Description:
With 162 residues, the chain is mainly α. 53% of the residues lie in helices and 7% in strands. The chain has 6 helices and 3 strands. Helix 3 packs antiparallel against helix 4 (81-103).
Amino acid sequence: MDPARTDSITPAITPIAVLARAGTAVVYPGRPMDPFRRELRDAADSLVRSLQRVGLELGYDRDGVAALDAYIERNRSYWSSDDRERLTGSIGAFLGECMVETYGGSWRDDPARGPGVALPTGDTAFPLTKAGKHIRGDASDSVLSFFEMTGVIIAKGGITKL
């Protein structure tokens, strides 16, 4: 790691399963959370707190996703395969929470594909899958483009209407 690049620090993220066992549930005003969503929100909040330590402020909106997208692009070459694997859950949880807060919908657990966001159109997006692809791949698998495309899908009335 380049010592001059403080933004290239890999955040200390607690894996989602550990959060669930530790009982770190947080209550968020105005929106009751089932244990499944609470686990994902806690993972996202852990990422937000970790990145605050390196000067990156994230909100649960498009600007937060854009900042995270740029952070991934700047830093993924510094991350080990273990770092990438560990970050996938927290980055995906943050992306999904931004989708829920911005577009509506809710988290659901798909037995075959893992956590997904059920959109108001009836479609389901899988932000943890996209986060993993972006972390391991290139800019064509951008979390920001995924977030923005979700908005387009919702505006058009569903993926089949594109």
